[in-house]
Amino acid sequence: MSESVRGDARRQDCAPGVSGVTSALPTVTSFARLGLPAEILRVLDDHGVTVPFPIQAAALPNALAGRDVLGRGRTGSGKTLAFGLGMLARTAGRRAQPKEPLALVLLPTRELAQQVGEALTPYAEALRLRLATVVGGVSIGRQTAALRDGAEIVVATPGRLHDLVERKGCRLGRVRIVVLDEADQMCDMGFLPQVTEILDQVRPDGQRMLFSATLDRDVDQLVQRYLRDPAVHAVDPSSGAVSAIEHHVFVVHGPDRYAVTTEIAARDGRVLLFLDTRHGVDQLTRHLRASGVAAAALHSGKSQPQRTRTLERFRNGEVTSLVATNVAARGLHVDDLDLVVNVDPATDPKDYLHRAGRTARAGRSGTVVTLVLPAQRRETSQVMADADVAPKVTKVRSGEAELSRITGARAPSGEPLDGGPAVSRPKNHNVPFRGLGSAKDAKSGSGGRSSRKSSEARKLAEARRAARVRRGG
């Protein structure tokens, strides 16, 4: 790149007033007042999007002006268009060379990357920009070919992008706009070294936008090292707690968790059920389908095409009960999903908040239910207190009116969906569903024995509590 071109790039990309703290530009009340390209406005109108969400109204003016942006907002707050429209508008009219994208969006999970790619594709196509989604679990050859053909926008997970750079299938030196979405999860998942390596390769004079639910620890390091005089926007409480969500804790007798879970899954409407382990997810899914519930499993043991098909079936209503590990706790967006159930309670406040964030999205309301055994109440109460959540605690049994009132639970049809004999429903509800931590333990008399992963998670939570005590917290 010539020095004259570099000089032009700096004048276009540098934020105003980088030598000091510059106030963010005023928020807007409509997309029409932003000066967006007419092609983008047409797509927004086609999708019925007329009024920007708060994070969009605050961040877009600064993104379009070339400012670095630091945004804190819970998942589901509209961040994709907040960074996406500005990035696309500022890239419009440019053409990428083979293997040399112009803009990059980094995300922590395959599902979130694919979701963001799908959300931005109509706007990119309207501007005649080529967008490539780069994630693990699918053919790296096809992704290499897409980059070789030229893609102005790349939406990627850090691991797969790192592999492509190592294979010389992608060069980042011409990337002028970088977005880090869900930055806190990328750090939590151990991607920080790969993220910093990627950021060190992009143009140093470019624009950077970072969005995160929390801005602490490693995320703060990224902010200090890579963002220049950012426009800061915080449109949600840092805890991520949402007032539109009703939080419930159901205290259940160990063996009855089998029937309670099944009746909730058989409700009229979609439900997302979280468990700790892949084995537990698969076992519960088999049981629900044998009971007549249209259930499907989602976890890291599934191939990416399987995961993509499962999510599509859940979104279109073919599957009504999605049984998942924490792989679905971030990035999953399903319109009108109003119920999330923690069959295995979350052992970390961040995990709880991100599971809960699958409902009450885009200004809607929702309900989050956590099933706990009596022996789990204290630990679960501490996790929720750390998440700044005050749930309503109710003792429930299967078949009760209160269970149906809160969740819409009902008896399943009992007609198996995959052939085989129908599942008989025990009259006394005392047959435990193994895999949900409800195997009887005659020695302890607690009515429950947790899985190895649950035990490890509990030990980690105890270590964190001990650390807080040592710090005087």
Task: Give keywords.
7-stranded parallel β-sheet, 473 residues, disordered N terminus, single chain, 17 helices, alpha/beta
What does this structure look like?
- The strands form two sheets. A seven-stranded parallel beta sheet has the order 3-4-2-5-6-1-7, with helices on both faces. Strands 10-11-9-12-13-8-14 form a seven-stranded parallel beta sheet, sandwiched between helices.
- It starts with a helix and ends with a helix.
- β12, α14 and β13 form a beta-alpha-beta unit.
- It has 473 residues and is of the alpha/beta class.
- It has 17 helices and 14 strands.
Number of helices: 17
Strand order of the largest sheet: 3-4-2-5-6-1-7
Q: In percent terms, what proportion of residues is strand?
A: 5-15%
For the sheet with most strands, the description reads: 7 strands, parallel
Computed structural class: alpha/beta
For the secondary structure, the number of strands is 14
Helices and strands, with pairings:
Layout (H helix, E strand, L loop, with lengths): L2 H11 L24 H9 L7 H11 L4 E4 L6 H13 L11 E4 L3 H17 L4 E4 L5 H10 L3 E4 L1 H9 L10 E4 L2 H6 L3 H8 L7 E6 L4 H10 L4 E4 L10 E7 L5 H9 L5 E4 L3 H13 L4 E4 L5 H12 L5 E4 L14 E4 L6 H8 L9 E7 L4 H10 L5 E4 L5 H7 L44 H20 L2
Parallel strand pairs: 1-6, 1-7, 2-4, 2-5, 3-4, 5-6, 8-13, 8-14, 9-11, 9-12, 10-11, 12-13
Helix pairs in contact: 2-5, 3-4, 4-5
